[in-house]
């Protein structure tokens, strides 16, 4: 049996060879990135990633996950001479923003976020070339297809870039100076109301539930209007808990969605 110094020499030799192969792989990944950039092909190819991982033993997959993440970051870096813009449905601290932030964190891409509020404005900005990409919610596991998106997409064809889903946890909040006894109305985006319908009816059957429309279609816009008293102090709003922190609102009920597995799927498109 070889002594430990001999084994360590073998390990060092193998490490050197591994580094050479890794450098070679990264160079090929860079060349693929250059090709994707020239042909406007998305960096992320989930089908290809699964194809690669399916051939790797389970005990080594975390290494390949990390290696592919490095490759994707290298390919994305080729696009970073100018930061690309993405228009998103709804406003700041909406679930749309949480979704695109999650996508950027996982993909390594970095976008300048433009808050377009409605699917219609998102699509117009893409068509006019004001942004590179657009993101909007397409479906929810409780509320079903997002009607606003369906009504707006029409027959025009758009180039699909990616899709992803995030868990959605809703809170019910009121103005910091209001009391629950003051509330007679709950307002939220249509999808938010639908996702919490049974819970709201069970816990707050006496309160009126209304969908936000126009400038108040977005949960974040409703939260801002509750905080600034643009809406009556008798109004409660639905949304992500971060809205309470931003607008100094008081959370009176957490996790009001009807199911714990509440998920919303978003799509990222380009012209």
Q: How is this structure best described in words?
A:
With 271 residues, the chain is an alpha/beta fold. It folds into three domains: 4-77, Up-down Bundle (Chorismate Mutase Domain, subunit A); 84-166 and 264-270, D-Maltodextrin-Binding Protein, domain 2 (3-Layer(aba) Sandwich); 171-261, D-Maltodextrin-Binding Protein, domain 2 (3-Layer(aba) Sandwich). It contains ten helices and eleven strands. The chain has helices at residues 4-39, 46-53, 61-77, 95-107, 119-127, 147-153, 190-195, 197-203, 219-227, 242-247, and strands spanning 84-89, 111-117, 133-140, 144-145, 159-167, 171-175, 185-188, 208-211, 235-239, 249-254, 263-270. The radius of gyration is 24 Å and the shape is elongated.
């Amino acid at each position: 049996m070889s002594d430990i110094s001999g084994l360590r020499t073998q390990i060092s030799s193998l490490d050197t060879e591994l580094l050479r192969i890794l450098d070679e792989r990264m160079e090929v990944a860079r060349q693929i990135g250059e090709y994707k950039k020239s042909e406007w092909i998305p960096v992320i190819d989930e089908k290809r990633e699964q194809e690669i991982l399916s051939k790797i033993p389970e005990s080594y997959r975390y290494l390949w996950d990390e290696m592919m993440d490095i490759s994707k970051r290298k390919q994305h870096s080729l696009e970073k001479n100018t930061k690309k813009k993405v228009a998103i449905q709804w406003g700041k601290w909406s679930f749309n923003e949480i979704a695109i932030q999650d996508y950027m964190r996982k993909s390594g891409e970095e976008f300048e976020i433009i808050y377009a509020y409605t699917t219609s404005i998102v699509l117009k900005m893409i068509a006019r070339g004001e942004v590179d990409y657009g993101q909007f919610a397409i479906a929810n596991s409780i509320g079903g297809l997002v009607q606003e998106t369906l009504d707006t997409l029409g027959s025009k064809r758009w180039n699909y870039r990616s899709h992803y889903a995030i868990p959605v946890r809703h809170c019910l909040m009121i103005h910091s100076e209001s009391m629950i006894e003051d509330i007679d109305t709950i307002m939220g985006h249509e999808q938010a109301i639908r996702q919490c319908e049974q819970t709201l009816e069970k816990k707050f059957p006496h309160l009126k539930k209304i969908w936000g429309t126009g400038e108040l279609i977005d949960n974040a816009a409703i939260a801002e209007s509750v905080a600034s008293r643009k809406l009556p102090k008798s109004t409660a709003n639905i949304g992500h808990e971060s809205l309470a922190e931003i607008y100094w609102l008081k959370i009176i009920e957490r996790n009001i969605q009807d199911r714990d597995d509440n998920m919303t799927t978003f799509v990222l498109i380009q012209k």
